[in-house]
Amino acid sequence: MSLKLYPRRESVRKDGLPHFFCPGCGCGQVLNFFLRACDELGMKTEDMTCIGGVGCAARIPIYLSTDALHGIHGRTMPWATGIKMTRPDMPVVVFAGDGDALSIGGNHFIHAARRNVDVTVIVVNNLNFAMTGGQVAPTTPLTATTMTTPYGSSEPPFDLCKMAETSGATYVSRWTTAHGIQAIRAIKTAMQHTGFSVVEIISQCPTHYGRYALGSGSPEKSVEWIKEQSIPRTRAEKMDPEETALNFVIGEFVNTQRPVFWGSTIYDGAEE
Ligand SMILES: Cc1ncc(C[n+]2csc(CCOP(=O)(O)OP(=O)(O)O)c2C)c(N)n1
Question: Does CATH number 3.40.50.970 belong to domain 21-255?
Answer without folding.
Answer: yes
